[in-house]
Design a protein that fits this description.
With 223 residues, this protein is mainly α. The protein has 8 helices and no strands.
Length: 223
């Protein structure tokens, strides 16, 4: 137990350090290739869609606790039920919030920008909303691993996602501009979701396998 706590703590520190380092160099690349103006546009779009998190009633926050309790009681059926329900619920919930946010965000951008900048910001809005949805799903997949007391794996996944975002940004920026940056962020969260779910199944089953979350359990959701 002490070894696991040390490992989890060490990887948590590594995650914070990696986030700072990767974002520092990523912003340098963005500013160097696109300029401060485009970085400001992307930041504005992200800030606008992030308002949707005020309505976030997602299940990821308490998922780790429920998974840990089910694991301690050796209730394997409940463990998988909790995680599948959380992932599917967050996918549906965040998608609904994104749809609701579309029109207000589209209009809100006109309050702070105009002309070419406004057109660029609005063109990025769908990508930002998709990232918003993926963030909600990724929080559920990583929360499941935390509930399995494998915070070290969660940190590894987050670091892998950051590295992919940086590499994809470097590759896409020269050709796609700000859209390349959006593609890179989408790829980052898609990787986190895939790895999070795969590692959860590995920890849960004791062997490598993959299947999509396919069951939504009403009794789990209501509890």
């Amino acid at each position: 137990m002490e070894l696991r706590l040390r490992r989890n703590a060490a990887w948590a520190i590594a995650e914070v350090a990696a986030s700072a380092i990767v974002l520092f160099f990523l912003y340098r690349v963005i500013v160097g290739q696109l300029g401060v103006k485009d970085l400001g546009i992307w930041s504005l779009v992200l800030a606008t869609t992030s308002l949707g998190r005020l309505a976030d009633l997602g299940t990821a926050a308490g998922l780790g606790r429920f998974v840990a309790i089910a694991g301690a009681r050796q209730e394997k059926n409940k463990t998988i039920a909790y995680v599948e329900t959380a992932i599917i619920t967050n996918l549906l919930l965040y998608s609904a919030i994104a749809l609701i946010m579309w029109a207000p965000a589209f209009y809100a951008l006109s309050l702070t920008t105009s002309g070419e900048v406004l057109a660029t910001a609005r063109a990025l809005l769908p990508f930002s909303l998709l990232s918003f949805v993926l963030i909600g799903v990724s929080s559920a997949s990583t929360g499941a691993i935390v509930g399995q007391q494998r915070s070290d794996q969660k940190s590894m996944i987050v670091i892998a996602g950051l590295v992919l975002q940086f590499l994809a940004s470097v590759a896409f920026l020269p050709y796609g501009g700000l859209r390349g940056l959006a593609w890179a962020q989408i790829a980052q969260y898609a990787l986190v979701i895939s790895l999070g779910w795969t590692l959860f199944l590995r920890n849960y089953l004791g062997s490598w396998t993959f299947r999509l979350p396919r069951h939504w359990h009403r009794e789990v959701f209501e509890n």
